[in-house]
Amino acid sequence: MGKAIPKRKFIIHLIIILSLYLIIRVPLVNKPLQHDEIYNTFVYLYASPLSKASQKPMNLERYDFSWRTDWKRQIAIHPPFLSILYYFWVRLFGDSEISLHMPVIIVGLAEIILLYFLGSIFFGSDVGFLAALGTSFSIAHIEYSTQAVYAIFEPFILLASLLCLYKFVITKNKKLFYDLLILNIFGISIYYHYFVYLIIQTIILWFYRKEFKITKIYFISVPIIVILFIVVTVICFSRGHYSYEFWMRSDFKTLMITIISLPSHIIR
Amino acid sequence: MIEMASNIFFTILGVFFFMGCLFILPPFKKSRDPQNFFNLVLLVIFVTPFVFYLVVGTLGFKLGNPRNFFYLLPIYLLVIFNGFRKLIYNRKIFYSLSIIILIFLLFNGIMSSYTFWKRVYIERAIMRQATKIDVGFVVISYTQRTSWPFKYYAQKYGFSHKSCPWDSIKDREGSFSFFEEVKNISKFAIIGDQTLHLKDKYFLGEKLFKINKTISHGANYGPFWFLQKFLDRPSTTISIHLFNES
Lengths: 268, 246
Known about the structure:
The complex is a heterodimer of chains A (268) and B (246).
Chain A: H1 7-25, H2 35-47, H3 67-77, H4 81-93, H5 97-123, H6 125-137, H7 139-144, H8 153-171, H9 174-190, H10 194-207, H11 209-212, H12 216-238, H13 252-260, H14 262-267
Helix pairs in contact in A: 1-5, 1-6, 2-4, 5-6, 5-8, 8-9, 10-12
Chain B: H1 2-23, H2 34-59, H3 73-87, H4 91-130, E1 137-140, H5 148-156, E2 162-165, H6 167-170, H7 177-183, E3 187-192, E4 206-216, H8 225-231, E5 235-244
Parallel strand pairs in B: 1-2, 1-3
Antiparallel strand pairs in B: 3-5, 4-5
């Protein structure tokens, strides 16, 4: 377990992390929008379930679909949280590049601060600091934290949930357990990979169930939710919602190369 | 050369990653220690993609993009730097080497992405320029993988004339409804940068003139001003080809 960070060191680390993050991201706030960003925001803006029927989406020539015609496939890929968030965000702040990029830049910043805390607690402040800097220097992170897409929300909610889980296990404060439940609801509303983490979390909590006095309802409801998710995934798969032309072929060589180079694929 | 250096660099990072994984393996005897349980959680989380690829690959499905596991990036970096820290006890050497890794990580990313970034900035600038041309129809050099960004900016900049992306006509051997569209229009223009190579056979109209114009595309690399100064410029030369009705 990492030692408590001296206050001065903590402030210096935080200033360096925040400055470098913002120096790299802020100039990109006006970056032109790309395909996925426009689909995630603009199309939903004009064709979400909440919009009026008279509001029509762009004439999407090749892909003539909108939320109304495509919601099953869309929900199969991403939970609708971000679309709903952007629906209201765009109504408040408009759909300019700066407006669309602001939420992701802020969430990316919060994620890096969380990472610093988490890294410092578990591996010491040096490791936490350098991992946070590495994340803000990674081009994958730079791209996603300046793009109005789902990606940047995912590590943020994962780190927040991990931190909350850890504090709950340490302090046994029941309030943190409820915070964790709220984070879990956000997690599964943001991305489906979160279900993997939800299973791990539930197994951990099962071992501590007597100490923490966790009700049986939790241990019954989580497996039900996970089973429902698996059923929905199988149905979506059978309907071809996950079939993309650009997915890699799964021959043995590609598989091995992918697995060996997985960390570098994710970081670069 | 740059690609080779990049591959070597990421291979080294991969080695640190696997070493980091070994270092955080929990001592299972003290199973109720929160540190152990957390390490176990981390281990299970970051082996998820490996298990996913093994299962999906073995079952013979097409493989998803590794970027779908982007949410593991911060945890992977934690593991890498933890592995690195365990290897190098001297704090000064650890920091010095880590900073070199960070700088290389950043530069590798910038060098691999800036061409694409520049392209999207140029295309937006061309879209903006196209609004100023007084013609009935404008074809714009636009290369993004779908026409959505094109339509978005056409709507945003309030195109009063008809328009279409150059890519939608250039591969079609001259037979495209574009000619139908142009038929009743007295003047049309084609606008693009150096990547635009016009072939006369596509155009039935009489070419009036071609003008070259330097416009600012505003591509912004932020603190990497030197990149802009030595490798790139915030402006580009575009060509406007004006045609009359045939």
